[in-house]
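Support reply, case 0932

Customer input (verbatim):
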Amino acid sequence: MAENKRKRTTANGLSERAPDYMSRQAQTTWRFLVGALGQIKELKPSDGKLIEMYCTQYEIYRNAYKHIQENGEVQPIYVSVQNAAGDVIEKDFKGYKRNPMTQIYSDSLKNLTNIGKELGLSPKSRQELFNGLNDDDEENSIVALRKVFG
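Our regenerated output:
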């Protein structure tokens, strides 16, 4: 008999389970974010795509940072000097070049910041999220955010 897998969702309808195709790191980030944002009724299931983008950008950020830690922000450039027979007789140091992962790291941070604002993950964006709500909705939403973000 086939197992009946119920899809668990939060109060606002977001799935607690990350998409299967996401990496382990991205799935961990998904569970954290959905757990933190799950009670905020202004978020809808359609915001799951934003959460997915945030999670994948977080993974890219972590991978780029790890690469930078292992290889440094810059890499030395050497030019080989060859003799007439084509043998390398020495290598001249020409300077440094930027590790390409630093650009990927920078881009992912910008993307995380922008997507995070859309999800209300910064103090300013949380405040903007509640502008225009009536007093009861605003009070309930702020109480929910305080529970999540302290």
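We compared this against your earlier run and they match. Two observations from our side: The first strand starts at residue 74 and ends at 82. The radius of gyration is 23 Å. Please reopen the case if you see a mismatch on your end.
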